[in-house]
Each structure stands twice: as C-alpha cells, then as structure tokens.
Predict the structure of AMP-binding protein.
Amino acid sequence: MRVPMTIADFLDRAEFGFANSPGVIDEPVQPATPVPTSTYGRLGERVRAWQAGFDALGVGEGERVAVVSQNSARLLELLFAVPMSGRIAVPVNFRLRSEEIEYVMRQSGASVVLVDPEVEQATAGVTAKHRFVLGERTETELMRFGVEPRPWSNPDEDATATINYTSGTTARPKGVQLTHRNIWVNGLTFGLHTRAWERDVYLHTLPMFHCNGWGMPYVMAGLGVKQVVLRKVDGAEILRRVDEHGVTLMCGAPAVWNAVLDAAAGWDGAIPGRDRVRIVCAGAPPPSRTIQRVEEELGWEFTQIYGLTETSPVLTFNRTRPEDAALPAEERARKLSRAGVPALGVRLRVADSGEVLARSNVVLDGYWEKPEETAAVLEDGWFHTGDGGSIDAADGHLTISDRKKDVIITGGENVSSIEVEDTIFSHPGVAEVAVIGVPDTKWGETIKALVVRAPGAEVDEAEIIAHCKAHMAGYKAPTSVEFRDAIPRTATGKIQKFKLREPYWEGRDREVN
Amino acid sequence: MRVPMTIADFLDRAEFGFANSPGVIDEPVQPATPVPTSTYGRLGERVRAWQAGFDALGVGEGERVAVVSQNSARLLELLFAVPMSGRIAVPVNFRLRSEEIEYVMRQSGASVVLVDPEVEQATAGVTAKHRFVLGERTETELMRFGVEPRPWSNPDEDATATINYTSGTTARPKGVQLTHRNIWVNGLTFGLHTRAWERDVYLHTLPMFHCNGWGMPYVMAGLGVKQVVLRKVDGAEILRRVDEHGVTLMCGAPAVWNAVLDAAAGWDGAIPGRDRVRIVCAGAPPPSRTIQRVEEELGWEFTQIYGLTETSPVLTFNRTRPEDAALPAEERARKLSRAGVPALGVRLRVADSGEVLARSNVVLDGYWEKPEETAAVLEDGWFHTGDGGSIDAADGHLTISDRKKDVIITGGENVSSIEVEDTIFSHPGVAEVAVIGVPDTKWGETIKALVVRAPGAEVDEAEIIAHCKAHMAGYKAPTSVEFRDAIPRTATGKIQKFKLREPYWEGRDREVN
C-alpha cells in the first residue's frame, strides 16, 4: 500500500496519540496576546480553524501564503495549516527590510501575507491580496473555529509544501521549493538521529522561518514532544526556560551557544539541564574551544549537523562516537567540529573540483520559477552544495573546508557578499569594494568590507555601515570597513576572495568557521 | 529530488560511516563454520560477493531466492544481497516440515534455495533449480569475492523486496509481498520509536525469517549498530550474551522473555544489562505479571508493539508515558500490555464490526499471486487486520481485545479469551494457559481453559474457576478446566486456537457459534 507521505502524518499522530499532552507553549508579545497554553488536540483544532479561514477567503490549493513572524505558536500552526491543505507556505525572515520582503512577495506571487504585530509597522509596505496581523485580530477576522475545512483534493507527497527564500550568492534571493516528501524524510531522519522521543521538551531557539525550523516543528509534533516558543535569543532567558520547562533539546547556530555560554558565566547556581540537554548546532561549526566549553561548562551534549535550506536541511550528523567517548575533551571537541556522517538515505561525494555533492530525498524540488538555476544546482543528478570539503575514508565524516566563496555565515544567517557589495557600491563615494567573512568569537564569522574610495570622496566607516543598514537587513551590514588604495585582481579581472581572507584566518586550519 | 527509498540506503550508510565498526558477530554452527567477526565494510564486500555469485548463476532480477535458516550472518547478508540487486528474498521458517517448505517453494516459484547445514537433512526434499547449503561450501561454490556485481537496472522503491510466508490461521500459508518502500518506512519508524543509535548493541533473539527480523537487520545496519547473532532462544544463553557483548536492545515474543525470566531465577550474580537493556515485545501482549517481572526482576525497559507480517510489521508502539512513570508497577504494567499508539505515518481505526483497520506505507503490496485474497484484505483502501480491538480516545492507545476468531460469544456476551488467559495466568500455580470456546446447548459457546500446571503446583479446576470469578465478571470465567502436559504451538510460538478447538467442534460446520 502506498500512502502519500505528507506533513499531515506529523500532526495526525500528535492529535491521535497526544491529544491531551502539552503541545505548544507560546509566549506573550505586545500588543497581541499569546495563544493559550495548548495541547496537541487544541493545536489540531486551531490548524483546522486557519484552514477553514483560508477556504472562506477563497485561497485555493497551490496558492502561496506568506508569514513574516518571530517565533510564535501562530507561525507554527501556519506551518501545518497551509501545506496540509495543499497550499504553499512561505515563511519569511522577519529581519528583512520592507523592500526585501516585497521582492519575496512578488517573486512567490503570494496572495496572503500574515505579519507578526512586532513587525506590523516595519512591514507596512508589504501587501498582498489579503494582509493580516497575527494575534487576536486574525482569530476574529480570519480563523473559523468549529468549521470543517475543505480537505486537500489530492494529497501528493511530491507537491510543494513550503518555499523558503535563501539569501543566495546572487543579489536576489531564490525560493527553495521543498516538497512534503522532502520534509517528511528530513523530519524522520532528524528525529531518528537526535533520538527524539515523547519525554523530550523542545525549546525553539532556532527561528522557525529558517528552513521551517529545520523541520523540528513537524517531527516534534509527530513524537508528542512539548514545544516551547522562544521569540528572541537571549542566553540568560534560554537558561531560565531550560530550568522552567525541563528542556532537553535545542537547535541553533554557534552564536546561540555563545550567548548561552556568556550567560552561564554569570549564572547563579547550577547550570540547568546538565547531563540532560542535547543541542544541535549548524550554520558553521563553532571553534572546537566553544564545543569543549558547551560540554564542560554547561554539561550539555553537543551535536553538529551540516546542511542547507536546499536540503531540508539535514545532510550530515556528528555526535561523539562510542569509540571516541574516552578521548581527551579537546580531541573529542575537535572531532565534533566536523560536519559528520551522512544521515540515513543521504549519499555524499566530493567532486574532482573539491565541491561537496549530495543525493537524497531531502534535496529540494527546485527554485521557484527559476528553471535555469534549478538545472544548474541539480546538474548530473547531484545537488551541488557550493561548499568545498573532504571525506575521511576511515570513518566517513565530512569536513567542510571552504564555503561557497561568496556566502558569509554570521550568527547563523547566510549573507551574500555580492548583495553587500552591490549595496556598498551604490554609495557614490565608493569606487571598488570586496566583502569577506573574517573570524569572530561571538558570531563565527563577521562581515568586513574592503573599500577603495572614489576620487575625491571622503566617505568613512560609519557612513558605509549606515548606508548598508538603510538598504538591507541590519545583520547584512559590515561590522568593519577598511579602506585600501586598490583591490588586487587576477589577470582576467577577478577578485580572489581567498587571498583577501588569508591574513585574517592565519593560523587556522580552514578559512571558514 | 526524488531518490528511490530502497534497502541499499541502510547498507550504504553502514559502509560509508561505519566501515571499520563491528557489524555482525556470527556464532558457530556444526558442521559449518561461522562468518568471521565482521565489520560493516566486510559485510558490504560479502553482500557484493553473493550478488556477483547470483549474476554468474544467471539468476535474473525479480527471481525469487529462498533461504531456510536459523539466525546466521549468512542469512542476514542474503536479506541485503538479494533485494538490493533487484531480486526477491524468500526467508522461510526453518521449523516448518519439509512438505510445508516445498509448498512455499512451489508457490513462490523460487529458482534458488539456500539451506542452513542444521536443516540440510530435514530439507533434503526441498529442491529448486539451484540448491546450496550455507557455510564454507557456498563461499567456494557460489560467492564471487572481488567481482563487481551487476547493478540493479532500475532501482524502484515499489518493487517487491521480500516475500514472507504467514503461518496463517487458514490451511495454506500466503506470501506477503513487502516492497522496498514498506521496509524502508518500517525501518525508519522502528528505529525512531526505539531510539536506536550507534551505541546500541542488538542481539537477534528474534528469528530473522520472521518478517525479516521485524526489519531490525536493516535499520541496525543503517545506524551502525553492532549485531550479535543468536541461533537458538535459550534464557541463560541470552543473559550470557547480554553480559558478554554489552547488549542494549532485543526483540521477541513473550515466550522469549519468559525463558529469560526463568533463567534469571537461577542466575548467579547481578542480572546483566540492568537499567541498560530495552526489549521490544510483540506477537501477543504478555500477561501484565510478566511485564512487571521484566521490569522488576531484570531491570529491563519493556516496550510492546503490535503488527503483522502484512505490516512490515510495526503498526503501534507502547512505552511508559512520561506522565505514567510514577504509577505503581502493577498499574504501569497493565498499561504496557496494550498494543500502543500508532507509529508515525500509521492511521488506525476500528470498524463497526470491531475489526482494527490500518492505512500506512508499511502495509503489504499484496499476497504473492493471490489477487482475491489481496483485494479482500485491502478492501476500501484499508488493511484489515482480522483482529478485534478498541482505541482509548483519551490517549490514543489501541488495545487488541482478541484475534477476531478468538472472541468467545457466550450468552450474547463477547468475551476476550486473552483477558481470561491473563487472569488465569496470574494464578501462581499456572505455567501456561489457552482459553477457547466450546459448543454449549444453552449458551451457544461456553468457555474452556486448557492449563499446564507450574512445576510442583497442585491447583485444581474449582480453584481456577474461583480465581477467575474473584477477578472478573462471572460470565467470563471458564465453565470447565482441562489440565495438559503442554500446549501445542506453531513454529513461531503461536497457539493455534482452531486446532485446540477442533476436537470439541467435530461434526459442526463452523468452529464458533
């Protein structure tokens, strides 16, 4: 018997087996109110109320519904409600500037946009056929409680469930189409390799817009795990939540764990969750010293994964091997800073060029309305990660040695250096610019701009940074600017980024963190 | 990207990520020798040697290869080698009589049969185009080491991977066709719900011919888990292996755990694996007293599952819920004797008739060359389990009240023979019990208990009946008790109720009223 593998599998099991168990614990946001502490039974009712609302609004199957929101119970509900009814969810990074979000709206052709009250003002220019502010108002205006929604006419595991926009290497973000099957397989393998179960308590330290929270909202529901919403990353607040809710599992970029380590230094009393919490880190492996501190100062189990939005995202998984358990902490931490072994069902190989290639059911269906880019990234039946790496033949662990030259990962956010360069170049005082990632203890990498002034121009560092913040999300702005007389180029006029990076990364074994 | 979900995913990950880790630990059999202690890298080489051997023999894709064997590394290898090359494996119960195996050979049309040396004589009449005895002889005669096998021409997740014959309650066994997708999904969900990981050590207490060892050989390989072969169930030997290999995970029918409990009573010293081992029990929920003893006397975590060969097999899973952890042991054990909540991706419902129905990707493709039986069991798009049950709306747990045929209807009341058996078994003087309905002029059917006394016990009929009436509604108590020396079971340990009933129903046109 073949049954379509869809997102419904996760919520249906939550409702069937965990109807009266704690489901999603929201947190308040001003001026709106949180969703009351909810069971999985209640989550199912609310999901159907959203769906019936979209039915009443005339939003058809296949239409795109965009959500611009911090982590919230409502965003989580929409990650189920939209795709389970055959519509397509477009979760958008709430830190993007209004013009950037407007581009996503246009490119995805979304007919509905829902925005969090906290970004209501900032997104005032973001419109669609239907626009709603999340909170009690949507419950009155849009949701239809107790009305049975129209079922998805033809549940199909190959249908697109979500479109997640990457910052990409080119100036314009691309929409990554993930199918129900992509998300299903990612959810099962991620749950399998993290050993998640109903006794876990999951804290959303990762933004849910980010590749659908790596699929965790789905598989946590499917396993009946209590999910605690966290709207903003704050180290001390994370420690308090771990204590208050008995949290056992979290995901996040290195910056999250650095924030927790900072907070732990000033924490009064025993660190909560010692020998109980396990964390999953991705984005870029942190320095092994950070890993060692997580294990020693927090007593939390550290696991590293590697993947991209295009891979749902989990490609590899790295947890201390049984045979390595007795190694010195430093050596263990060093091994944990590798990307890891492929998840079940993932094939990896390294091309002659050094690029890491992947084949798996977690690989994207395509980029939304970009057939050429899709064909290029899936050439020869393999997904081209754009990252350089190597595989240790002895234990099958992948190490990423060189990231796609133009992407900087800072605080877990991917930033296209080309986009930053374009923005800086639009300043009349700039003649030439190159943007690179340089190491940073807190953020993994941080953004540095090398600038050649236009003749006679007197532009300074503060002005460049302000210019960037006026035209892009703040996290994309450089944190430092250096002025040069020239930027060295190859004979054919290409900037060799790795040469520019070299002096900053000296003494490290790779040029990315 | 769509990639076929096939059995290759499990072995490929084992070879990629665990090439040098312990894979399969065989045990000796006379007169043959065991496969030397093997890594997963070596397992991969041996699998390819089998495949190249079948190529040389001219065995084509889609042809059936039968294996009649006790648990052994070679049987495990063939469970990978045959389906991964597009052929179909037919694992056969080695305890069947020769004529029964001959029927399986004919019905499946197998062109190859491989038999374990221990059953070489008993299966002398079992022939096919090619017959081999497993052991060193096959390594010379059949296997081709170092020869690259012909790859499967068109890997297809919907292709049949194995045909497993059910012992069935009807006269002739039926061949259950499981596809690669069936086995893939069962493996992932079983691994997920048992929280299996690379630090586990799995002991094969379950026959691998039995629904491919419930899929465990596959998912254990995929997770890099060391697998220890056990040829014969023996309680003391299981305890020794748990000790010797640091076993953490086992599967089996209640009889296995009874054997271990018996051995534990005479075990010298601390029980191995206390607070480390978890066991998975299926076949029929054991009496709750057995569950309680497993937890108290062995200190092993008990989980109950429910399924059938037709469902790959895992449909439901029952482990103590976090909210039940503090319950009294007896109450916890009672709850654990239920079938459990559906595995991820499984939908269950109970038909008006009381029959349990299931929909899932683990449900069989069909019965081999039996279109009518296939259509009947999959009527209306649901798999008909043939078992009667009920679902607790509060926590979604399924309870199997009876094999449909084993419901006794007496005086208009439905009585579950399992419930009566459970009650009788709770009497300390009882070693084994089977409860059946026998014809009765007044009540239609009346309840009869067949009892094997515990060693040294002197319990009599009146005492059994009084014990039942003290613990259940009066109508559920047997009206007669017969004492036996043993209760006959099938090769897989099942009591065949229809055989027990036969003598009482002679000359009637059906076996229930």
Q: What stands out?
A: The radius of gyration of chain A is 23 Å. Chain A has a mean pLDDT of 91.
